[in-house]
Specification:
The protein is mostly helical. The protein has two domains: 49-116; 118-164, Orthogonal Bundle (Arc Repressor Mutant, subunit A), CATH 1.10.10. It has helices at 3-32, 41-112, 126-133, 138-145, 149-163. Helix 2 packs parallel to helix 5 (149-163) and helix 4 crosses helix 5. The longest helix has 72 residues, at 41-112.
């Protein structure tokens, strides 16, 4: 045998084997290739329904979110309003504290110099004396007039000292 003859036989055999492999690959290609999923009318309808439910849920969520945002703004406005009122009350309390301090200084001066003092039965303390004459005690007078009990007691003691 000739080497050329063997070499030709080898090439022919290789070509036949390759052709056979290609034939088999083409023949069985449909078994190895994944087919696209089947889409039926029912599947499309279920997907559409799910999509609509998602849209409705998203719209409800957005509406609730807007309502909560509005409520939060209202709450913030109410807090700011109360903060302003508290600032005003603090300012008034400081003012009244200063006034009470100056009034207490005047009362001390009146106690030390009774000849300079105006009559307690006139002016802002007349109501305290009227209620005391009616038989109310310091606590009741304080509750009724909204004044500190110590101030009521001081006024009544000054009046009693004057009467002596």
């Amino acid at each position: 045998m000739n080497v050329n003859y063997l070499f030709g036989f080898q090439i022919a055999t290789d070509v036949l084997i390759c052709a056979g492999i290609l034939f088999l690959l083409l023949r069985f290609r449909k078994y190895f290739k994944p087919s696209p999923p089947e889409i039926s009318e029912q599947t499309i309808e279920e997907f559409s329904q799910l999509l609509n439910e998602s849209r409705i849920a998203a719209n409800n969520f957005l509406q609730e979110l807007e309502q909560e945002k509005k409520d939060l703004k209202d709450l913030a406005a109410a807090v700011e309003e109360r903060e302003k009122k508290l600032q005003e009350l603090i300012t008034q309390a400081k003012h009244y504290g200063d006034l009470l301090s100056s009034e207490n200084m005047n009362k001390i001066e009146e106690m030390e110099n009774p000849e300079k003092a105006d009559s307690l039965s006139e002016g802002p303390y007349s109501e305290i004396l009227n209620l005391a004459r009616k038989g109310l005690n310091e606590e009741q007078i304080s509750q009724q007039l909204g004044l500190p009990e110590g101030e009521i007691e001081l006024v009544l003691n000054l009046f009693r000292e004057r009467r002596k």
